[in-house]
Write a structure and sequence with these properties.
Number of strands: 9
Bound molecules: zinc ion
Strand order of the largest sheet: 5-9-8-7-6
Low-confidence stretches: none
Strand content: 25-35%
Number of helices: 4
Order of helices and strands: EEHHHEEHEEEEE
Helix content: 25-40%
Distance between the termini: 29 Å
Shape: globular
Number of domains: 1
């Protein structure tokens, strides 16, 4: 697919796009440059996102642990170094850490670490991802007055529901990031998005008027 172009940053919808932003954040995955999606962005949005991306990567990495080869790589590649460097992050995590059982998409139950994560961090990062992917798939900016609501899912959603068969599915970096979405054909700013990160971490977002009744 030839990516659409925009002279305006697709994240803030205000400033000129002078650079590109990775959606999803590149640091979430290993992989080569060509495997990643980018959208036009301004330097302020681009620079402002890197600290959020790194912090969220650490949370996700700590949560999915070393369950998959890619997750192991993610952890060894950078996340554990950030943990060692950041006393604040480490103590924030350790003070709330406990083990929980989760069911993955294959219906298998596994345990992983769970801890309190800052919802605002997910909101910021996945609002950006949602706006970026909305642009890539529709060729249009999601208007700034359309809100994006982000929810964290504890378990894999049951994708066998007939309602979920309308979802279009794509993946990035060899399935390390799978996203599904459905847009209202009559009003494309209404949408539902579902993100699966390293096969064991799920985030959902809703845009527009569907916010209150999606899922
Ligand atoms: Zn911007």
């Amino acid at each position: 697919m030839q990516p659409p172009k925009s002279a305006i940053c697709v994240i803030c919808g205000r400033r000129p796009a002078t650079t590109v932003e990775h959606v999803p954040p590149r640091g979430f995955f290993k992989g080569t440059v060509g495997q990643f999606l980018t959208v036009p962005a301004c330097t302020i949005c681009n620079n402002g996102s890197s600290e959020d991306d790194e912090t969220l990567r650490n949370y996700i990495s700590a949560q999915i642990g070393k369950q998959t080869t890619d997750a192991k790589y993610l952890w060894e590649w950078g996340a554990h170094k950030s943990f060692l460097r950041s006393t604040k992050l480490r103590s924030a995590l350790l003070s709330t850490t406990h083990e929980v059982e989760v069911a993955n998409e294959d219906g298998l139950t596994t345990t992983r670490l769970a801890f309190v994560v800052p919802v605002s961090l997910y909101q910021r990062v996945f609002e950006r991802v949602t706006r970026g992917l909305h642009f890539l798939h529709t060729g249009k900016l999601l208007p700034t007055d359309i809100c994006v609501q982000v929810n964290l899912l504890i378990n894999s959603p049951d994708l066998s529901f007939p309602e979920l068969q309308i979802f279009e599915t794509h993946s990035v970096a060899e399935e390390a990031f799978v996203y599904r979405f459905a847009l209202d054909p009559e009003e494309i700013s209404n949408g539902v998005w579902l993100f699966t990160i390293h096969g064991s971490h799920w985030v959902q977002s809703s845009t527009g008027a569907l916010v209150d009744n999606a899922f």
